[in-house]
Amino acid sequence: LVMPEMDCFELLQKIRTSKKESICNLPVIVTTGADNPEIAKQKAINLGATDFITKPFDAAAIRTRALSYANLHQTSEKLREHTTLDVLTGHMNGKGFDRQLEKEIAFVVRHQSRMTVMAVEIDGFKDLFIRVGRKGTETIIKKIGEVLATIVRREDTIARTGLATFMVSMPLAMVDNTLEVADQIC
Description:
two-stranded parallel ribbon
């Protein structure tokens, strides 16, 4: 928990709020010899720690847990590379959105029409994460995904492309309609 430049909680917050998925999904094992490990454990878990070990601990047990989490993380990363779905929201992820956007652009070009692409980002996400923790922010992200799905047309595409960023593409959308949708989202 105690480190020279920043404490474990600050580091954990930086990891979990990183815009890079490869960083924010890293497994983190917290070790401590704190006098009151339950309070520290609860805070670390709320901030997204994968596991928590209190002293005295066995080096072989730590090594085993670390290898286990590293293998699980590698497997998860491989699966993430091949999926086009954001597990948290059920919408497309960035890779899926890029593929779909290519198709939609080709469609509107062929029909000499227009389309709108909108970015929706949660302002102050890091501060929000500090206040409500990982589970709280995940609940908020899910809710935003649900709200977007109720506002946009069925033929529109919604994707979660970053930790706190959604993209919406609306082929054949008229300007007035897209402004109305943007107002509803806000």
